[in-house]
Amino acid sequence: VTISIYNLKGELIRSIKLGRKEAGSYLSKKKTAHWDGRDEAGERVASGVYFYTMKANGFKMTKKMVVLR
User: 13 exposed, middle or buried (CB, 10 Å; 0-12, 13-18, 19+)?
Assistant: First the structure.
């Protein structure tokens, strides 16, 4: 499973590789995927609209999110 986060220009901000995950519900923060709001350099991203894409075993989903600081 890989989650990629992009800005409105389509530039890759962060890529999070989660490795292999079994199907199911992941409700605890320890097991679930989460983004800390930082880019690949560890800098906090600005407020704005971002897109995230999740890829897993041929499945691909893209959604929009808003970061407010």
Answer: buried
> How far apart (Å, rounded) are the C-alpha atoms in residues 57 and 13?
22
Global pTM value: 0.84
> Which residues 6+ apart lie within 8 Å of 2 measured at CB?
15, 16, 17, 18, 54, 55, 56
Q: Tell me: the pLDDT tens digits for 4-47?
A: 999 999 999 999 998 887 777 777 777 788 899 999 999 999 99
Bridging pattern class, strands 2-6 and 48-56: antiparallel
Tokens representing residue 31 in the block: 């097991």
Left if phi > 0, otherwise alpha if psi is -120 to 50, otherwise beta: which for 29?
Answer: alpha
